[in-house]
Amino acid sequence: YGNASCGIHVVCVGSASNVSMANVEVSYNKGVTYAGLTVETTGTVVLNKVTALMNAGRGIDINNDGAAFSRLVTIISSTASGNGKEGIYVRSAGAITLSGVTASGNTLTGADLLNSVITYPQVPQGITVLRSTFDLNGSNGLYVETLRNITLTSINASENFSHGVTALNNGSTIGSRILVNGTNRFYHNGKSTFGH
User: Fold this and answer.
1) Cα gap 160→81, rounded to integer Å
2) Mean pLDDT, residues 41-47 taken together
3) Half-sphere exposure of 86 (CA within 13 A, CB side)
4) d(CA 6, CA 55)
């Protein structure tokens, strides 16, 4: 909290080093080139009730795309708002799931999720975002890029400078879907609600 660089920086090595964190706050950290929370690992990442507010750089930065096999990233009931770059930034080769997340008022994109860069024997996985809010960000509210299905359920993405939601899976070779369901709110974004 209020550190000169980052709040927490976790680096795990080995064939599959899993990271699980719950009830953590990383806020008001001052390093522009650092995130409030950074996780670099070769295993799965599960965050539950993590708060990242007003960091000079990203709020939450997760990278496990160097894993030998596809490893999931799941973020639950967490908030990453008012940060100097992206609120949530994920680079993975595995399934990415956000549920009950708020990423609003960030200088760049609210949540930037990418798992479309795959190296054998990694297997492409989808991205799912449920009951989450991405408002008032300086770029997109939510940016999603994958080679498999995208599922968006009950998303709020309004008053963002660019698109409310950008969802891309046009690199898929198996006809993957983009499914939007539930009750969604997409108002007053600078560009069209959906970029795809």
Assistant:
1) 13
2) 96
3) 17
4) 8
